Amino acid sequence: MSTSPAQRRRIARWSVVNTAVVLYALFPVWWIVALSFKDPATLSDGSFVPRRWTLENYRGIFATSEFTRALVNSIGIALISTVVAVTLGTMAAYAVARLRFPGKRLLIGTSLLIAMFPPISLVSPLFDIERFLGLFDTWAGLIIPYMTFSLPLAIYTLSAFFREIPWDLEKAAKVDGATPAQAFRLVIAPLAAPGVFTTAILVFIFCWNDFLFAISLTSTTAARTVPAAIAFFTGSSQFQQPTGSIAAAAVVITVPIVVFVLLFQRRIVAGLTSGAVKG
Amino acid sequence: MAEITLEGVTKRYPDGAVAVRDVSLAIADGEFLILVGPSGCGKSTTLNMIAGLEDITEGTLRIGGQVVNDKAPKDRDIAMVFQSYALYPHMTVRQNMGFALRLAHVDKAVIKEKVEEAARVLDLTGHLDRKPANLSGGQRQRVAMGRAIVREPKAFLMDEPLSNLDAKLRVQMRTQIARLQRRLGTTTVYVTHDQTEAMTLGDRVVVMRGGIVQQTGSPQELYDRPRNLFVAGFIGSPAMNFLPAAVEEDRLRTPLGDLPLDDRLRAALARRDAPREVIAGFRPEHFEDAALVDPERGGATVTVTVDVRESLGSDVFVHFALEGGAAAAEQLAELAADSGLADTGAGGPEIVARLSARTRAREGERLRLWLDTAQAHVFDPATGDNLTLPGHPRDTAAG
Ligand SMILES: Nc1ncnc2c1ncn2[C@@H]1O[C@H](COP(=O)(O)OP(=O)(O)O)[C@@H](O)[C@H]1O
Ligand SMILES: [Mg+2]
Description:
The complex is a heterodimer.
Chain A: H1 5-36, H2 56-63, H3 65-98, H4 104-116, H5 120-133, H6 139-164, H7 167-175, H8 180-209, H9 212-216, H10 226-231, H11 243-269
Helix pairs in contact in A: 1-11, 2-11, 3-6, 3-8, 4-6, 6-8, 7-8, 8-11
Chain B: E1 4-12, E2 18-27, E3 32-36, H1 43-51, E4 58-63, E5 66-67, E6 78-81, H2 93-103, H3 108-121, H4 137-149, E7 155-159, H5 167-184, E8 187-192, H6 195-201, E9 204-209, E10 212-217, H7 219-224, H8 229-234, E11 241-248, E12 251-254, E13 257-260, H9 263-269, E14 277-282, E15 287-289, E16 300-305, E17 308-311, E18 315-321, H10 330-339, E19 350-356, E20 366-371, E21 377-379, H11 393-398
Parallel strand pairs in B: 3-8, 3-9, 6-7, 7-8
Antiparallel strand pairs in B: 1-2, 1-4, 4-5, 9-10, 11-12, 11-14, 12-13, 14-21, 15-20, 16-20, 17-18, 18-19
Helix pairs in contact in B: 2-3, 2-4
Adenosine-5'-diphosphate is lined by residues 13, 15, 17, 19, 37, 39-45 of chain B.
InterPro entries (chain A): BP-dep_ABC_trans_perm, MetI-like, MetI-like_sf
Protein name (chain A): Carbohydrate ABC transporter membrane protein 2, CUT1 family
Membrane topology (chain A): Multi-pass membrane protein
């Protein structure tokens, strides 16, 4: 296959556009990565590439328990919130997609409302409630608001996926002798898996990235997550900005997200339902 | 294997719509029963109630003598073939066909054997390890059939299983399904909106309209003795011709001309409550080129102008239009709406006659047509009832 000049021009044009977009998107990321590898002397030299590469910043943040403890909190809290939100979200979305029940519109409306609520307006009441209930500065104290705010998102994405699965498949499973639970587990769940993965990743990223709740509802390293912990970083002397450490910490918490997305991209994109019914 | 009995079965959906009204049917063990009717008449709902996928609002459903109204689908031991096939996309053909057996904890070796046997019957052996997405429409259809037969269930329920296939494949599969059913001898309820499929497949056909059973009988019975306008117009292709007719003395005045009444028609119209304005129905094959008919034979002769002549080799279809209004009745309007033939309105009635291939009929020319009035039907326009049937419902009601 030879390419005509017109085709080549088109390819060239798209290449330029794509490169521009990618550069625009990746520039801040690269900037942070570059910063994290610079030593304190060259930190503010404005160069794109570190003149002297150093792992000092990384060693620094992992040297004390302040960051490692926050990392453990981040991973634990985000994972638990994700598992709970996706489990509940799956059940709710299945009901929303499949059943006609009284109050369905109300449920959808309410969850929309919650998703739209500016979290900042809830922070002070939450602070008081959690102090009162003894949840302040605990894992549960963060998991509960994360769940609340990510459930609407989970229900929305998942019910879209469930609606894509032909209802006939469930009927077929029932006639084939499956209990409702078996029909869900053996037929619906495998088909909804890409949707569940997508939702889980979105919810995880939401919890992982949150700063507002993390900074407001924690006071010690007991439950403080990385984004909040970074704000408490101090330089090695009081006259020094902790820029290098912050950059290194930022890179450390970005990596898992990137790995996640790359790992599951194919699953997210793959449409497993093709061929269920006449195409 | 089992007989299936419906007694006064009614389905009212939560929104208040009555989809099936007071249906009573006794389906014998091993019988091949067809449910036919236009789209939306409640065929699928009836089938889903038998399967247990829809609750029964009123009435009793028995499978093998046992009342199963409140039993879950899995406890009814019936297999269903869906219009969409509903194959599990994440499973191979083998897993699809063996799914029910796997749920029933049948031994793995036995499952393998049964699936392979069914695959051999359905010519799917080479495709057992493929996913449904990689199969053609016909192959998917056969997998859906296979999934039903490996289970050796009490009954097969099929909801328009062939309507997603192209015409040629449909005819092929139709024969195959009939053969398979005869061989297995499993009670089968088959839903279709295609009257040709209904006529060619079943032992017995049930015609439904608006959730109500119109008539039950063998294909020939429905064709020869339709109980009302709806059945008469629905069964048969090309459809029966309907003409408005006025009863006058000893004749029937129609747009075709005046037709003499024979004893049978006279008796039908002599009933006390018989209307004076009726609808006459003639099947296309009850016409013949008058030149080819023994003049001694009874019947009537009329002269028409041929619009279109279609030669099929074995027969010739002759179309012609008549002056005057077309037959009007609720049931006919419904049939026209279903077939997509919206009322042509201004034009008079259109007639199709099926003549012997020896006819000399030519387009645009006058043709003398013989009409076998002994075969004609006369319907009451208000109720749609066939007045020519001896077992007329109003007779039995009166007696
Ligand atoms: N879930 C439902 N809720 C309300 N009405 C329904 C539902 N399913 C079907 N119907 C109505 O019941 C009637 C019969 O439907 P159906 O049995 O699917 O017809 P068919 O299979 O003969 O085309 C239709 O008028 C349809 O609109
Ligand atoms: Mg249907």
